Amino acid sequence: MHNIAIQVNDLHKSYKKLDVLKGVNLTVEQGSIFALLGSNGAGKTTLVKILTTLLNQDRGTAIVNGFDVASKPAYVRQSISLTGQFTAVDEILTGQENLMMIAKLRHLKQPRQVADALLTRFGLTDAANRRAATYSGGMRRRLDLAMSLVGTPPILFLDEPTTGLDPEARIEVWKEVKKLADGGITVFLTTQYLDEAEQLADRIAILHEGKIIASGTLTELKKLFPAAEVEYVEKQPTLEEIFLAIIGKKEGQ
Ligand SMILES: Nc1ncnc2c1ncn2[C@@H]1O[C@H](COP(=O)(O)OP(=O)(O)OP(=O)(O)O)[C@@H](O)[C@H]1O
Ligand SMILES: [Mg+2]
Fold first, then answer.
1. What InterPro entries does the entry give (predicted)?
2. DSSP H helical ranges for the chain
3. Residue minimizing CA distance to atom 1 of ligand 1
4. I need a labelling partner for 65 at 20 to 30 A (CA). Which of 54, 98, 148, 253 fits?
């Protein structure tokens, strides 16, 4: 039996008349990478906000690291870190200062050592004393990821971690995310990039019209979408084709 890091049951959330989550159910195993896929406006950020205690659900339950988000938000917050959809880096501070600030907020004993170790790990040592305003998009994302790892919480939420990055920077972030999961951290990520889910995720769930309409490993999802036979050559569907087929759209629409 694997231990469960995140358990969501029948989660509902509306913004006034707009029903965004209409009964979401999902389970994330400890130490795995879970990718939540969905189009713009599907409700991915809304779900992440509820799981990270930034927003209350209307109905249903969410348990994170064994704690109920509604009744034990402080315990949930101690168990997680979040890299939001929009980078949380303070531009006026240097990379090192940004990391030290978080280490101090988390009451760690040696903030400078913690900061320097993370700068090294994310290849930012040379830029440590430059203001974050001068960083490239990829460097900023890496700093953001490093900031979310100060204090090494067991569960990491990444809301669209590579949106806006060039292919090289995306691969760098993927590598770091894989290393984290190999080290036992549970990663819950949202993405619109199907190749990102394909590359990283142990399990993938598709959020569409307020519900998880498909979930499983990539192999399981591929089974939902039988390979098309073109003469004698079998063509394996890409995750993109599976995604579009499941949400009922044709490519190019
Ligand atoms: N605070 C809010 N008040 C009203 N409506 C909101 C609010 N936040 C989000 N919404 C709406 O809820 C829906 C889901 O938004 P959400 O940000 O969760 O989607 P998303 O899947 O993260 O989209 P994206 O891929 O663009 O980041 C959208 O229609 C959005 O406009
Ligand atoms: Mg979002």
1. AAA+_ATPase, ABC_transporter-like_ATP-bd, ABC_transporter-like_CS, ABC_transporter_ATP-binding, P-loop_NTPase
2. 44-51, 73-79, 95-105, 111-121, 137-148, 167-182, 194-200, 218-224, 239-246
3. 15
4. 98
